[in-house]
Write a structure and sequence with these properties.
Strand order of the largest sheet: 2-5-1-6-7
Shape: globular
CATH superfamily: P-loop containing nucleotide triphosphate hydrolases
Number of helices: 16
Largest sheet: 5 strands, parallel
CATH class: Alpha Beta
Structural class: alpha/beta
Order of helices and strands: EHEHEEHHEHEHHHEHHEEHHHHHH
Radius of gyration: 21 Å
Number of strands: 9
Distance between the termini: 33 Å
CATH architecture: 3-Layer(aba) Sandwich
């Protein structure tokens, strides 16, 4: 089984790539995020945020008595919590007519959790390597999801995870999964920050990830209770890390970097280039985004999308103020200019002038020190969700009113989940 792992930071369009792979008959494309485990030996605060180090673990059949614990899979299906403010993500991401965090119409799908566990326990007994363990996990997942309806031939399995760019022992991925690939999207800083700001504003106004009611962009634009500098820094740190990974792993071999904007503007050219790198036959289905056999509605905070939506590249002026854009340009202008000149795939960051890369010398100095670099990455992203606190203003009153409106509007959904589980659309969006 050839792995295609789309490793990125959040808000970079990783899910878009897996949805394009979804319709290919040789690819089993995960409908939800898939992450390798967090590394508690380096960073014990398992908050699951971008920057916190994950890793490819060692595997010893004699010492690994419990494959479920090794994979972080609960033996019993967790009980669904139906209580406002207490709703949690499904640990597998699929249940009766439910696909985690994705927008779709009424989807008829199911996941046999008991079968998933049984297959894992049965097949896991013969695993002799990390490759065997995860091949078993992937096959059990797709066999339990509608009896393999969405598995295809499983010559390839496509996964994605935000934060997976910070796997602390990333070279081990290529050693343990031979002939596999890691794809890395780069999104322009304006789109990245616009998406993050929208998320924080939605949390502030109580809409969270719900698709309705949609928070007006004028509210998002006025929102200022977030740390712009932390977001700029996290993006700059990421660009430097990608450049250093290319120095070590090469350009377009196992590690393939592409621009999100190029993928959206010229989907066919980018997908043909990637297919050529990973040995996958190019089909027209790779130009259509699907999930569970139907058109994908996206997972954007901008609401439902249709296919590859080019508007997501240019919407940032609707939510970012002129002072914010000026600060972004001041900090990231030279790198943005370089990226905007990159029109082909793979993107070559090795030719970028080192003097415009943020913290290049520091990251390069510790690149081979797994612990120090992992701690640095975690700290670099640690302030990303920091909020600015001040006296209540007009926005606080608006947020309180809007949050109450959201709760009232979701009463029918909560009643449906409680009284008619599995009926109709169950996604908490």
């Amino acid at each position: 089984m050839i792995n295609i792992h789309v490793a990125s930071i959040n808000r970079s369009g990783a899910s878009l790539m897996t949805r394009l792979f979804d319709g290919h008959p040789d690819v089993a494309s995960y409908p939800v995020e898939f992450s390798y485990p967090w590394n508690p030996n380096i960073y014990p605060f398992l908050d699951g945020l971008t920057g916190s180090p994950s890793y490819i673990p060692d595997f010893d059949l004699e010492e690994t008595a419990d494959i479920l614990e090794f994979l972080g899979v609960p033996k019993e299906k967790p009980e669904k919590i139906i209580k406002w403010g207490k709703e949690k993500a499904n640990p597998i991401g699929i249940s009766k007519n439910y696909l985690e965090r994705e927008l779709y119409n009424t989807v008829k799908t199911d996941f046999d959790y008991d079968k998933f566990i049984r297959l894992l326990l049965e097949s896991g007994k013969t695993a002799k390597s990390i490759q065997d363990v995860y091949d078993t996990r992937h096959k059990a997942f797709f066999d339990a999801w509608e009896n393999g309806k969405y598995a295809g031939t499983m010559k390839y399995v496509a996964t994605y995870g935000s934060g997976q760019l910070f796997i602390s022992n990333i070279e081990k991925y290529f050693k343990e999964f031979p002939s596999s690939f890691m794809l890395c999207p780069i999104r322009n800083v304006t789109g990245y920050i616009a998406s993050e700001k929208t998320r924080y504003a939605r949390m502030y106004y109580g809409t969270r990830r719900f698709a309705y009611p949609r928070l007006p962009n004028i509210f998002v634009k006025a929102f200022s209770h977030y740390d712009l500098e932390a977001l700029i820094r996290s993006w700059l740190v990421t660009i430097t890390r990608i450049a250093l990974l290319q120095e070590r792993l090469g350009i377009g071999e196992g590690f393939v970097v592409y621009r999100y904007e190029n993928l959206v503007n010229n989907t066919e050219a980018v997908m043909k280039s990637i297919c050529g790198k990973i040995g996958l036959s190019f089909l027209q289905s790779l130009l259509t985004t699907t999930i569970a056999g139907q058109v994908w509605g996206g997972s954007s905070h901008q609401g439902r999308q249709t296919g590859v939506n080019k508007n997501l590249i240019s919407y940032y002026p609707k939510v970012l103020r002129s002072d914010e854009l000026a600060r972004i340009e001041d900090a990231c202008g030279p790198i943005l200019e370089f990226l905007n000149s990159c029109k082909t795939t793979p993107v070559d960051l090795m030719s970028i002038p080192k003097d415009i890369l943020y913290d290049y010398s520091f990251q390069k100095r510790y690149f081979d020190d797994e612990e120090k670099l992992a701690l640095y990455s975690a700290l670099a992203f640690s302030n990303r969700r920091k909020v600015s606190v001040g006296p209540p203003d007009a926005s606080a009153i608006s947020a309180l009113v809007f949050a109450r409106l959201v709760r009232i509007m979701h009463i029918p959904r909560m009643l449906k989940l409680k009284l008619f589980p599995g009926l109709g659309k169950q996604n908490y969006r």
